[in-house]
């Protein structure tokens, strides 16, 4: 018999993260496009990001038929948070009148994120943005595949912190930090130090 799950955060009821998830407002609209294989991932940080931001949505799939309507959303300038030679570093909005971004964030392994772009040519055609400075990942349980690699929620927080300063979105990381600490406790501190310690 499976353990009862929270309908909102999808964690087991006895590990529900909802009390740690904030409700933060942002000028930037964030849409997270999650590859279906990520929904069962133990962390599922894209879900946590969408739950913690008032102006965010999480879409799960490989092909997104509703993209044309999304990209035509009045009042927003659509961009893709994804590295590339042409990617522009995110900087703070110059004024309160500047058109806010519709920040589209693929969620999946690099291979799966590239597949989302391949299957959705409208995504691949968007202007790309990236983080000017990347702070180290808090995801201490796995070795990053590349320098500067972040969990999806970390990338969203760093992007919003860059765009909307002085507003700070670090509170969005509270449930993520709790998940990491919970996994470390479950494996035992000695095992963590042996396998992941510096």
TrEMBL record:
Assigned EC number: 2.5.1.25
Endpoints of the signal sequence: none
Family matches, as InterPro entries: DTW, DTWD2/TAPT
This protein's UniProt keywords: S-adenosyl-L-methionine, Transferase, tRNA processing
UniProt xrefs under Pfam families: DTW
Domain DTW intervals: 2-188
Domain of life: Bacteria
Principal EC category: transferase
Keyword tRNA processing in annotation: yes
tRNA processing keyword on record: yes
Membership in a protein family: Belongs to the TDD superfamily. DTWD2 family.
Protein name, UniProt field: tRNA-uridine aminocarboxypropyltransferase
Organism this protein belongs to: Pseudomonas shirazensis
């Amino acid at each position: 018999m499976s353990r009862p799950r929270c309908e909102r955060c999808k964690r087991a009821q006895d590990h529900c993260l909802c009390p740690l998830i904030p409700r933060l407002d942002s000028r930037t609209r964030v849409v997270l496009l999650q590859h279906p294989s990520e929904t069962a991932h133990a962390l599922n940080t894209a879900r946590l990001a969408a739950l913690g931001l008032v102006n965010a949505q999480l879409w799960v799939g490989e092909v997104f038929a509703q993209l044309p309507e999304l990209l035509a959303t009045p009042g927003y300038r659509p961009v893709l948070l994804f590295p590339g030679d042409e990617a522009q570093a995110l900087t703070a909005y110059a004024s309160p009148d500047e058109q806010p971004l519709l920040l589209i964030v693929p969620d999946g392994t690099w291979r799966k994120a590239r597949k989302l772009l391949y299957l959705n040519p409208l995504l691949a055609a968007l202007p790309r943005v990236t983080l000017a400075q990347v702070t180290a990942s808090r995801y201490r349980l796995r070795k990053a595949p590349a320098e500067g690699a972040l969990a999806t929620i970390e990338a969203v927080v760093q992007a919003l912190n860059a765009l909307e300063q002085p507003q700070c979105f670090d509170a969005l990381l509270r449930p993520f930090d709790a998940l990491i600490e919970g996994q470390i406790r479950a494996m035992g501190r000695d095992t963590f130090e042996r396998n992941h310690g510096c």
